[in-house]
Amino acid sequence: MTTAAEPQSLLLQMLAPEVRADPYPVYAQILAHGPMQLPGNNLTVFSSYADCDEVLRHPDASSDRLKSTAAQRAIADGAEARPFGPPGFLFLDPPDHTRLRWLVSKAFVPKVVKALEPDIVTMVDGLLREAEAGATFEAIGGLAYPLPVAVICRLLGVPLEDEPQFSAASALLAQSLDPFISVTGSAGSGFEERMQAARWLRGYLRELIARRRRDPGEDLMSGLIHVEESGDQLTEDEIVATCNLLLVAGHETTVNLIANAILALLRNDGQWAALAADPGRAAAVIEETLRHDPPVQLVGRIAGQDMTIGGERSDGGNVAGGVTVPKGDNILLLTAAAHRDPDHVDRPDEFDPDRPVIRHLGFGKGAHFCLGAPLARLEATLALTALTSRFPDAKLAAEPVYKPNVTLRGMSELSITLA
Ligand code: HEM
């Protein structure tokens, strides 16, 4: 543990736009530094695999941002606690988290996800047929983005024609997951725009819910309305928040898994051709991408109580050593750094799908483990196997362009030469 100045400058480096293309050297410095505490910002940052894993499994680690010291202070100063109603269950603790997750998880059982497979195959095929028309292919706009968006719209019952309107709102909302507030103490630029986007998207969803009430379909939104109408388990505000969460998750994450995997396959000799020859490698390629260059780079928690992390627990339950996080602190878990922790993985900087074991926190861990993981894995598998087998000689055409987001790491442009 060192003085507060050094951690702050490392964290500011991590947020700097110029490191977006390759944040891993900064993560390596943060990892070498060890846990960092910025008492003035009520912030603790963990970056080792063992610490991140321990926090994610810790019963006192809360996902409810209202429990932070900063939020409590703002509320004491007169701020409205939840100006948009309840948040998505990603940001809730039990019992609300348990109840809402259980209701939605019924839509993500393996049978439902598997049933989407023929549609996903058709969508991938259609997108790649368009790709064949040109010598170069921009893989974000041509495949990695439109596929998950069409799938989540189908699942939720959101008309695809409305997509251009809410994709802009969803991109702005994805920025609100970045840790500007915790590290800099300010809300970051574009705060008003993000608030407006949040307001607009909720309004849009309310209208759509009203339409689905009159004219229900087979989709998840209609299913949630049905639950609400047949009992008191779910309020309209909770349906809005849940659909909002799923829509943004479906828009801003799988795109980056597909794109980050394409880039890794192209940058690492022989990997593209190996997948083209053996589609059975897809699962390992996807898990190694989730470790080596994960779409979600960090996860936040709030200390619900004073918590000691990384200490030695004796038989009597006493904890010696470790870092004590004061109740109310924001906790940043730099999972992308943890994935390259040499105490967790050999040759951490190498992209190697043939590692004997690939353990990662790319979909989180514990009670909030990603509900969309099976869907994301299926979409990525079908997209990557089709792309490599159809274009076995593809090459990187230009250096990719990265989006400004820190938490949800991804590219805005990834051009490849097809033949
Ligand atoms: C590659 C794509 C994806 C990645 C890397 C990813 C990653 C994650 C991570 C790391 C978490 C845990 C966050 C935390 O613990 O605070 C999470 C939660 C969640 N994800 Fe995903 N996700 C992906 C795709 C999706 C998709 C496609 C959906 C839905 C359509 C989805 C829905 C959710 C939901 C609802 C949660 C909250 C679960 C809870 O709080 O109980 N995700 N995801």
UniProtKB/TrEMBL annotation:
Database matches in CDD domains: CYP164-like
Cofactor(s) required for function per UniProt: heme
Keywords tagged on the record: Cholesterol metabolism, Heme, Iron, Lipid degradation, Lipid metabolism, Metal-binding, Monooxygenase, Oxidoreductase, Steroid metabolism, Sterol metabolism
Spans traversing the lipid bilayer: none
SUPFAM superfamilies for this protein: Cytochrome P450 (SSF48264)
Pathway entry: Steroid metabolism; cholesterol degradation
PROSITE patterns: CYTOCHROME_P450
Entry keyword annotation includes Transport: no
MF annotations from Gene Ontology: heme binding; iron ion binding; monooxygenase activity; oxidoreductase activity, acting on paired donors, with incorporation or reduction of molecular oxygen
GO BP terms in the entry: cholesterol metabolic process; lipid catabolic process
Key word Iron present: yes
Pfam families, sorted: p450
Xref: InterPro entries: Cyt_P450 (IPR001128), Cyt_P450_B (IPR002397), Cyt_P450_CS (IPR017972), Cyt_P450_sf (IPR036396)
Source species, domain of life: Bacteria
Family named by the database record: Belongs to the cytochrome P450 family.
Protein's recorded name: Steroid C26-monooxygenase
Species the sequence originates in: Mycolicibacterium vanbaalenii (strain DSM 7251 / JCM 13017 / BCRC 16820 / KCTC 9966 / NRRL B-24157 / PYR-1) (Mycobacterium vanbaalenii)
Lineage: Bacteria, Bacillati, Actinomycetota, Actinomycetes, Mycobacteriales
